[in-house]
Amino acid sequence: MQLNNNVTEFILIGLTQDPFWKKIVFVTFFVFYLGTLLGNLLIITTIKTSRALESPMYFFLFYLSLSDTCFSTSIAPRMIVDALLKKATISFSECMIQVFTFHFFGCLEIFILILMAVDRYVAICKPLHYLTIMNRHVCGVLVAVAWVGSCVHSLAQIFLALSLPFCGPNVIDHYFCDLQPLLKLACSDTYMVNLLLVSNSGAICTVSFVMLMFSYVIILRSLRNHSAEGRKKALSTCISHIIVVILFFGPCIFIYTRPATTFPMDKTIAVFYTLGTPLLNPVIYTLRNAEVKNAMRKLWSKKLISDDRR
Q1: Do the strands 88-91 and 171-172 form a parallel or antiparallel pair, or are they unpaired?
Q2: 133 DSSP β-pair partners
Q3: What are phi and psi for residue 102, nearest 5 degrees?
Q4: Residue 219 and which of 88, 239, 294, 303 are 20 to 30 A apart at CA?
Q5: CA distances for 241 relative to 228, 248, 309, angstroms
Q6: C-alpha 148: how far from its chain's center?
Q7: Residues 6 or more apart in contact with residue 272 via CB below 8 angstroms
Q8: Cα–Cα distance for residue pair 304/308, rounded to 1 Å
Q9: Residues 296, 42 contacting (CB under 8 angstroms)
Q10: Domain ranges in the chain?
């Protein structure tokens, strides 16, 4: 379908065209992205090297941090570099790759959040059967299914993008390639494509959010039967998960569940879930989780000891 298009590259408007503000964007998001990498890679390293973090919850947290890292990387590096350029362009093929990777890792994060909610439900509501139900094999299969489901979702996005004919304007009023801004450039009726987009991305976001919030309501209600100490620990973990869910799904639902219309705040909201949430997730999970903080301290102590011996 690409051969039928007259457009071979797109021009990205970005967040601003003002030279001064472009420098601010460069510095700000370079710091954001660096913080995202350091925070998530620290969690990944800590979970992989700590024997105290071998439970299914941390198994899923490992993949959440991995998806956060890749999700942010699919957008941030190019956005940072484009902030230094007078004219930011992206080829048609690179644009399609960005659409695929962005939706793949975004969808993977949604599925991992669902798996983390399932894990907490089993741990709190069925504690005696927790290790039997959520064994390593089951967790591995669930993560594999999440990867396959994310791939199917992303392939659907690519199919929709490739079905759009581009024959004229090639200026994308955004800082990355996504279906919504691409729909505005298509030289054909995009009603059905937009309907499929809402049915796909919009439904995944909305249904997943409702499922997650409903599951956490059930979990929180079941905490009444636990001891004060157990209730406090479980409540702390669940609140962390709920904060992450709201921060991630709120902007996504706003963007993907409406008709093909754009608002001035769309790019700002997109910044929040493409760069803000991946940066906040490590902070939320680290500050509210004593086990992760203790494991990080031990990892840091081991590093200092090994450096002293050298």
Answers
A1: unpaired
A2: none
A3: -60, -50
A4: 294
A5: 20, 11, 40
A6: 16
A7: 247, 251
A8: 6
A9: yes
A10: 2-309
Q: Can you say whether the dihedral through the CA atoms of 25, 11, 268, 289 is positive or negative?
A: negative
Q: Closest Cα to residue 110, out of 155, 139, 145? A: 145
What is the greatest pairwise CA distance in the chain?
A: 68
Q: Which fold has domain 2-309?
A: Rhopdopsin 7-helix transmembrane proteins (1.20.1070)
Three-state secondary-structure class, residue 9: strand
Whether residue 119 contacts residue 134, with contact meaning beta carbons closer than 8 Å, is answered with yes
Q: Can you list the residues of the chain whose pLDDT is less than 70?
A: 1-5, 259-264, 287-288, 299-300, 302-310
Rounded to whole angstroms, the Cα distance separating 176 from 74 reads 9
Alpha-carbon gap, residue 81 to 72, rounded angstroms: 14
Query: Residue 103 forms beta bridges with which residues?
Result: none
pLDDT in tens, 189-239: 778 888 888 888 888 899 999 999 998 888 888 877 777 777 777 777 788
In contact, 90 and 9? CB cutoff 8 Å: yes
| Token code pair at residue 106 | 């975004």
The identity of residue 73, as a single letter, is: T
Residue 155 to residues 34, 63, 90, 99, Cα–Cα distance (Å): 29, 21, 20, 10
- What residues contact 31, with CB distance under 8 A and at least 6 apart? none
Residues shown for the chain: 310
Instruction: Give CA–CA dist 185/166, Å, rounded.
Output: 7
DSSP conformation letters of 22-63: HHHHHHHHHHHHHHHHHHHHHHHHHHHH-GGG-SHHHHHHHH
User: Strand 171-172 to strand 9-12: parallel, antiparallel, or no bridges (unpaired)?
Assistant: parallel
Q: What does each C-alpha distance from 238 to 36, 63, 208, 250, 276 come to in angstroms?
A: 22, 18, 16, 18, 21
Question: Residue 164 in 3-state DSSP?
Answer: coil
- 172, β-bridge pairs: 12
Rounded Cα gap, residues 136 and 155, in angstroms: 29
Q: What is the CA angle 142-144-149, rounded to 5?
A: 95
